[in-house]
Amino acid sequence: MKTKLTLSNKFFTVSWILFHATLTLLFSVSLFFTNGLQFDADLYNMFPSNNLNKAAKIADKNITSTSGRSLFILSTHEDFAKAKEGAETVYEKLKDSPKFESVSLYSGTAEDMNSYQEFMSQWRYNLLTPELRELISTEEGAQEFSMEALSSLYSALSFGAAVDTENDPFCLDNTNLMNYMKYAQNAGPAMQPKDGVLANRWPLDENGNPTEETKWNVMLRLQLSDEGAALASKKNAVPLIYDVCLPLEKDGLKFVFSGTTFHSYKSSSDATNEVSIISTVSVILIIVMMLVVFRSPLPIFASVFSIAVSMFTAFFTTHFVFGGVHMMSLVFGTSLIGSSIDYTLHFFINWKGRKKMNSGRKIRAHLFNGLFLSLLSTEICYALLMGAPFYMLKQVAVFSFTGILSSFLTVTGLFSLLKIPPREKRVIPILNKINFTIPNKNLVSKIITAALLVFSLTVIFINRKDISVKNDLTSLYQPKGRLKDDAAKAFQILNYNPTSWFIVSGNTEEEVLQREEKIMTALKDKPYICTACFVPSIKSQKESYEAAKNLVALKDFRSEYLDFDDEIENNFVKDFESRDKKYLTPKNEFPEAIQSVLDIIWIGRYENKYYSLVLPAIVHPEEEAEYNEIADQDSNIYFENRIKDISYGLDRLSFMIMEMFLIAYVVIFIVLKIFYSWKDTLKIASVPALSVLMITAIFSLAGLKIEFFCITGMILVFGLGLDYIIYKMENKESKAETFAIALSFFTTAFSFGAIMLSSFMPVHVLGISIFVGLVTSFILTIF
């Protein structure tokens, strides 16, 4: 007989339709107004920053958005000509690809030099270095510099170089240009111009001489476009680079690939493949299991439908809210398979094996308390995670929260409409063959519970000194194979790894630039780059102009050595005087190469302050204390180590999640007490507590730290593990419900057991945590 729609049926069915239709519509509209589907698998985007200072956030976004898209390709060969030829071949094949904003090989072109010369001519008296200002600030020093300039001038003339002696008799343009080029070189790898390209030789012996292993390295620098930076996408530029470069590797020619994108692409590709494999295998397992159990296609189709709908709904919502989906959210989302199948299994076990339930509405009524409390406990956990100050965790929470709610509505709103099979077919053969009776159940239960408690507490006590909440970003990703070798070679060849920087703030541009100049003095000869290298403070520009007056006063020098007549002399002095009170600022136009550097390091005005970066080319571990000491001298200067900062941020977040865990524990305990007696509430509450103890014990035995992904696994187990015990409490003597709990455990445990095999360490750790917690929860529930 066809099930009649009651008011209750209509409520759940209409809720399902409105919920999914609304989210689908919002997702579709958002796609129309954006750039389509967006995926993210950047390793750094997965992690929070410890420093909540606005300057740090702005600086971090500014530099990672640029450096994260910068790639280096080194063409290496013992013969420079062949190394250059290899680089030129790659350049020609990549330069016109829409996957790159720019592909740079050649340096020092005539166009570049013209733009530099025009700029230097315009600001020649503003760009004097502190050392030059000090030298020419006295009459004797000005005389000394003028003779040095004369020597440089005649050297240039002897090589036929064009020199504007009438306007620049002291070769200030060339002096300033050399300083600019020195600073610009600090903004990138340790390469020198050679035959129109940037190159170096590596390795060299301790005296700087070539060895038998020494090769020439010619550098290409690539900047990805939006299309080329699309991770987990076929449009990503990395496959194209490999397709172009790898076939050329013969006759001694090799390429070295450097840049975070190579690693991000590898991790995103692996994560995507693993998600696909795990999801596919999990679904196949579920189909086989359902076929064996129910021997009917309807539960199988319904289960796959529920999983698919929940995954798509979760994806739609996450993409709409965040404008994209991180691949880690999809990995976490595999938990939806387990949760979705929980609801489905409990419904169809009753649909197929409980003859007393003669309608879908009665099945829903029978299950509703268990389903609702299960949903509530799980959603409370995810709702709390939404409050974490961490983008990826918020995304995971929204993804899972929406997907699980979708599964609940599917079971209560749609499955309750399904027609009940004929009475003679309402039997589950395998259920009749399984005996869940446990002799001396109370005694066995106490023994098992005590054993788990004693084991976990003993292990924790023995390893108590080694148990700590500690995150180390470097341990979460270890490159392998060629990526590992290339990373090591590139680090040595390029001597460039900007992972730490000073963040400078001030109420005005001038304050920021003056603070940068103090840092420049402290850093001395270390390679670094900052805005003040190219844009001195106005205070410094005024001092340069005043010092240059001593050069202008050398009229006899110009007359005797440079044949200045009165007209030339007058024009020279007038030109100098016309430059008074004209100052260079970061808002001026700069040569393209310099502007590209300033775009990274000059942040500019944000709200009521100005910000900039002082970026060392590389920070050795032994130098970090010195850099922190420099920053400690001024509250407007902050030194950030990106790797340590993320690790410390994960520590903070780990403790925050633990606090959320305790809050969720208290809230759910109160909710459970409304529905159950004190005795039953304490039984239920003991399950997640013992699960956490067991996870901690297993991690300590395995020598693993209790870190962010382990703790996140704990809070997920907290919600999932409560499902089992709540279902059991609602149906203490029901063999069918015990069977349903066992089936749902196996499907969920298999999903997370599978991700333990992941090569991606965060996913691997998460899988171990959830698997151990689920096994513990299941054992406690059954006994």
UniProtKB/TrEMBL annotation:
Membrane-spanning segments: 12-33, 275-294, 301-322, 328-349, 370-391, 397-418, 443-462, 653-672, 684-702, 708-727, 739-757, 763-782
Main location per the UniProt record: membrane
Domain Membrane transport protein MMPL: 249-346
Keyword Cell membrane among record annotations: yes
UniProt cross-references to Gene3D superfamilies, sorted A to Z: Multidrug efflux transporter AcrB transmembrane domain
GO cellular component: plasma membrane
Localization of this protein: Cell membrane
UniProtKB keywords: Cell membrane, Membrane, Transmembrane, Transmembrane helix
Top-level taxonomic group: Bacteria
Topology of this chain in the membrane: Multi-pass membrane protein
Keyword Disulfide bond (UniProt): no
Protein name: Putative exporter
The organism of origin for this protein: Treponema rectale
